[in-house]
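Researcher: Let's try something more involved. This one mixes different molecule types, so please make sure each is placed in the same coordinate frame as the others.
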Amino acid sequence: MPSEHLSGLATRSSCSSLPRGLISPSRRHEQGSFAIGDSGLLVLQDYGWVDLGFRFAQPYWGKGLATEVASAWVRTAFDELGVSRLGAFVHPENVASIHVLEKVGFRAERHEMVMGMDSIVFSLDVKTSKGSH
Ligand SMILES: CC(C)(COP(=O)(O)OP(=O)(O)OC[C@H]1O[C@@H](n2cnc3c(N)ncnc32)[C@H](O)[C@@H]1OP(=O)(O)O)[C@@H](O)C(=O)NCCC(=O)NCCS
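Model: All components are placed in one shared frame. Result:
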């Protein structure tokens, strides 16, 4: 993957929580905008993939927002940033996240400890993604 395309992405070598924080989806309110979650792409150098992550505050679950942002990040990664493959990791009990990843085309690859968490590692290849549309 061309490194210049990734210069705008955050990198991290290790992380105990999920401070993705590249983009915070927000809602307008009469007192201004406020963040309702965050999502983004991070280069996980220790693991060797560009990671897609998303999370929302509980009042905003079940409204299709994670699917919407995940799908937007997939398009941005493949169409604008020149990324050829994305990864994502999810705790096996996080059924909603697994469902979101599968809806946008990710497939489960393997179980692995990622950042100390028992995880299912998912991936999506640009060719598979384009082929599915
Ligand atoms: C996981 C999370 C991001 C999902 O966000 P969301 O905006 O509610 O997701 P969406 O509404 O786009 O889609 C959720 C899908 O999972 C399904 N789902 C939710 N809970 C489910 C469950 N327990 N079992 C099966 N399916 C479930 C929903 O029905 C929906 O699928 P559908 O559109 O086919 O009906 C949100 O719950 C969250 O932020 N959780 C806490 C943080 C987290 O786990 N982040 C993920 C780290 S990778």
